[in-house]
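User: I've been going back and forth on whether these two constructs are worth ordering. Before I decide, could you fold them both?

Assistant: Sure. I'll take them in the order you sent them. The first construct and its structure tokens:
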Amino acid sequence: MTYRMPAEWTEHEGCLMAWPVRPDLWGDTLAEVKREYAAVARAIAEFEPVTMVAPPGHGDEARAHCGTGTGTGTGITVVELPTDDSWFRDSAPIFVLDGDGRRAGVDFRFNAWGRKHSPWDADDRISGLLLEHLGTPAIRSEMILEGGAITVDGEGTLITTEQCLLHPNRNPEMTRQEIEAELKARLGVTTIVWLPYGGALDTETDGHVDGVCAFVAPGKVVVQLPADPDHPDYVRMRANRAVLEHSTDAQGRPFEIVDLPQAAFVEVDGREVEVGYLNFYLANGGVVVPVADHPEDAAALAVLAAAYPDRKVVGVRARVIAYGGGGIHCITQQIPAATQATATQADATQTTATPSAAARA
């Protein structure tokens, strides 16, 4: 049985988020970031159902902030499960479909972006708990991988960055070839495009691809390309673009490239942070984009509206989310719609294997 990770623009059954409660990360901004998370949840709920996972004892607080949703997406549900942090793009399962449209979830290992935050044991377990809660079979992988480190087209192509996936704080005992083999086995891809760089300022994730490049459609990508020569990524992102210009996807197509030149730097709690417009979430019929109450917001939203002409583009203030190290894509994980009944655990287990070189965190 072969599984593949569908593209993010395919139909979703819903969206997973986690409620932020970690005081050592957010400090004096914790109250404000809760308001931002709730605003993101409400925006997505206009398009599709949202499940907000709160640590035990925090469910009522999450419900009070988020409400139940008022749009056509059927609302927001809060459930309580143990978590350490609130970046579900990275700690939640990555969902895959088999050839008959049955859904499973890949449970990769998680080590808090190279052991940067402790503890992380609850976040390493949350994929399994979520899959059990959703009644979805799990495919276990011993490789450490965060969802923000990859973007796929659903047709066999995956884009990632060398800066992140080859960092020795993730899988030091795995070679590049072994990492590629595990991605191909678990996510059903056949072609991997390695960009050299993530964001220079992205020291939290060591350069996730969702800060620099995202698929728009098969054969089409949007790339972060800051216009200011003084921006720390001015040269780096042009090097990434050059790689894409000379690459083809799994179907042999050259990439059509959409440039996103805007950059927004704002001050949060006495520190300058960059709000990355590329770190957006694709909902059913919508694009939910982080904005900064900054003059660059409107132009960035216009670029994305042109890239996604059939979707409603919605900006949501995410200044404090950026202060914590990410954007809207980082705090969400889509659940793709299954077209047939969910696969059984026995079906999924037939595809699992432990990569011999993977290091357990």
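The second construct, handled the same way:
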Amino acid sequence: MLTGRPKADLKLSAAEEAELRGFSASRSLPHALVARARVVLWSAEGKSNSEIASQLNWTNATVGKWRQRFVEHRLRGLYDELRPGRPRSVSDEKVALLLRRTLKKKPPAGSQWSIRQAADSNGLSKSTVHRIFQAFAVQPHRTRNFKLSSDPFFVEKVRDVVGLYLNPPDHAVVLSVDEKSQVQALDRTQPVLPMGLGYVEGITHDYVRHGTTTLFAALDIASGTVFTECKPRHRHQEFLSFLKCIDQAVPPELNVHLIVDNYATHRHAKVRLWLAQRPRFHLHYTPTYSSWLNQVERWFGLITQQAIRRGSFSSVKDLITRIDHFVKHYNRSCRPFAWTATADSILQKLARLCSRISGTAH
């Protein structure tokens, strides 16, 4: 039976296997290096070259090449060899100095480096600095916002809310409830220029304010339908009135689980008294500074983007009419949001963030 040329044995040490698995799971290393690490790991597991080539959409010869490179040179054999060409004009020391200065220091006048400032400060051209920033994914012009919760019961509340999303109780409806306050009825001072071929819609930057409304919303996480009411103010009286409407809308044989934030109106004494008299209602509070846990916030983003932000409203009544029209249209074809994050994955992500923050302390 013909089996082809015999392959050299490929065995990994514990250290090599650990490093290769780190390579194969990396999202920052070059894709080619990640794929080569997988070739070696799969080969060590006993897979044939043809099986690996099929998975990576490579040729058998390419798989065999990198397998043999690893056998002969181990980990350093997975890196590309130097190619002929013009010698580099920027030394490693200059690159390291540029990166260290960009990451560790601020410019003399300003809060973040620009490519021009970094080039002038390091004696390099703007194109060189741009290439180095791209190669090392350095983005001094960008920031990421975050806010850590100071809630002493953060872990318990996360597990409670996420548990409702992933495993909702039987014979009950789970509603994500919140209010979007100070929704402004803004009327543009000049007519909107319609979008056309080759140019975008034109709107004036100034507007006339005609008043505000508060949008109360309850999102059914099982079906994706939304129950809303617009009210003139944002007090416990309005929230209690909204709860009474929910009580009438939900069939009496079902329990009602409400996910709300820690706003004062949700904890008012009269609200608590009303809830205590209705044992089928259960409130679940999100941790402080954790509005991202409340699914209705995502729906608020949708209605803001699609119906409010670029709208022009002649009065508060006109604004409320447009909101009601959007809600009716949305509920006709709504789908629930797909929540996939577990409580453990959320807590692990926050633990990594905290370790990064603690690592920046001086």
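Notes on the second construct follow. The chain has a mean pLDDT of 88. Residues 316-332 form the longest helix (17 residues).
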